[in-house]
Amino acid sequence: MLASQLTRRWHTRCVIAVVLVATVRWQSSLTNAAEKTMVINDILVTGKHDPALMSFDHLMTQFITKHQVPGASLAVTRNRQLVYARGFGYADRKAKQPVQPTSQFRIASISKPITAVAIFQLVEQGKLKLTDSIFNILRPEPFFEGHDRKLDPRLQQVTILHCLQHSGGWDREASFDPMFQSVRIAQSLGFEPPASAEHVIRFMMGKPLDFDPGSQYAYSNYGYCLLGRVVEATTNMPYEEYVKRHVLLPVGVGQMRLGRTLLEDRASEEVLYYDERQRTGESIFAKNLGETVPAPYGAWYLEAMDSHGGWIASAIDLVRVAAALDQPTKSPLLKESSIKKMFSRPDGILGFDAQDQPKNVYYACGWSVRTFPDKETINTWHTGSLDGTSTLLVRRHDGLNWAVLFNSRNGSNNQRLSAMIDSRLHAAANAVQQWPRGGQ
User: Fold this and answer.
1) Disulfide-capable partner of 59 in 1, 215, 248, 428 (CB 3.0 to 4.6 Å)?
2) What is the CATH number of the domain that holds 186?
3) Is 391 among the domain residues?
């Protein structure tokens, strides 16, 4: 073996060892904090108490009381330091198990920014270009439903960038979201349900696009499913393994993993999920196909949603990833130019209105972006939503990041929890008069 290869391997092992030690120390300090519990506004609260940050405590306890939320977690960073991490209410109501700051939740579509970082890393490495045709990389065998066996020629025009920006040509409002058609797709292809991501892609290759690629914005889970397969095809590595090694490990996140659909496969630190109206669905699993099941546990297939909605994480995990983008010239994840591109305004109708004026709010590459009047200052964020889950990750222009995770989807008024708490979290942050100097 060449000396240079030995040196690289030794260096890689040293880096991994340092990151793992840092992760252990980080989690150890949080475990000590998690053991402390108190009651605020009749809600059980875990984690380190800081009187200077009581505005967050009062918001969260009052909010989950008003909307009858079983449990939640909130973490905040300031200037890349963790300053707040607390759990509220119950991870398991029946067992009276409290949510801890380190409790893991399904983060749903906050998985998309994670996938976007992975894609930009591969672009930096010269393994991809944003203008690459996605189906020149994947080349799946199409499946045609019915007698029409014509491949839509526009599929070859779909690029990596189109999928990142939700402009690939799939509109779930015009047709359907294939990520929630597991039984139909599996049975059409002659497999036992549920359908894998690969099955979904074969099925969708036989369907026409809803619009010309790049001509409009339409939120597409399927587009990010494709991006996950691009990561695999480009790296010869499972999507989850690549992300763990190259996106999460460099920022000291060691507990995040892809979630599982069924309750019996729940991870050790994972919360239970509740539907506020106890809604049910039909099982998509062959062993009990069509039977009535709780909506969060078997009515859709989380494993196939990996790169667009499949991760479980703590709020602390998410703010650590977000904070890694706060100092673009020194980011452990991406180069400054990649971070700039990831948040940049899309061309044409995606970023400009009918009068060719820049939109104040747009979807970039894995992130929603809101611009300030100077058009240079931005806030970025992403939400997530599944039965039993509502999540929000915010990166603010002033060096604040926060992640809030709920183990229920809607409030007592049937509105999304993440949407209702968004502005309130900004107000709680603005109410802090003196921030802690160091991290937790």
Assistant:
1) 428
2) 3.40.710.10
3) no
